[in-house]
Design goal:
The chain has about 210 residues and is mainly α. It contains 11 helices and no strands.
């Protein structure tokens, strides 16, 4: 992660370096991404770069963490706004907004796509960010349980992992499309949600049995 020398830089300079790194890691896979291009495009020397970061992977880890924080903040904000909706409607909105984040930030989506294509980086960096994502998914499912809309017989932590995998999968599929409308995005999310809802929602026969 960044050294203190980077954190103490003026905000505009930090942002310039960050945006240069985002462009580079979005345009090129990690292995072929170039520190030389990053420093040239951000207007710093290579010597200065190594005063700010240990190496290319250190910079990449910083970029991924900033992107992860930005998306997590968005998801928490959407959850607060939509928490009074029926559970599966709320989940649809969260999935849609997550995909919309990728559409509205194509350079960040490109970094995620390049990360998913590299099995070694994928394992390392996904593991680093997985705990917070998993905790968020568990929190969602607990809301569904509290609302009485999710089957209380599910394995909570396993199902949370499945939701995360579906989210990663749909984002990866969408990233391969050059352009797609919000309507097409909604349609894709709906297909996935039909699968999720039919798999984990509480069954009518179970409700009827409990009433007897």
């Amino acid at each position: 992660m960044p050294k203190t020398t980077f954190l103490n830089l003026p905000d505009d300079k930090k942002q310039r370096i960050f945006q240069s790194a985002v462009a580079e890691f979005g345009d090129f896979p990690f292995e072929t991404a170039s520190i030389s291009r990053i420093v040239r495009n951000s207007g710093i020397s290579k010597g200065s770069f190594y005063q700010y970061f240990e190496d290319k992977k250190d910079l990449f880890r910083y970029v991924v963490s900033v992107v992860s924080d930005k998306k997590h903040y968005l998801m928490e904000k959407i959850l607060e706004q939509k928490k009074n909706l029926p559970f599966f409607s709320m989940l649809r909105e969260l999935f849609f907004e997550g995909c919309l984040f990728g559409k509205n930030n194509p350079e960040l989506a490109a970094i995620a796509d390049n990360l998913m294509k590299d099995p070694y980086l994928k394992e390392e960096f996904l593991n680093e960010n997985l705990q917070r994502v998993h905790e968020f998914a568990v929190k969602l499912l607990k809301i569904g349980l509290d609302k009485g809309e999710v089957d209380d017989g599910i394995d909570l932590y396993f199902t949370a992992g499945m939701l995360i995998s579906l989210n990663i999968g749909i984002a990866h599929c969408l990233s391969r499309e050059a352009k797609y409308s919000d309507l097409e995005l909604r349609s894709t999310v709906e297909k996935m949600m039909n699968f999720v809802e039919n798999g984990i929602k509480i069954k009518k026969y179970k409700k009827n049995k409990e009433r007897k």
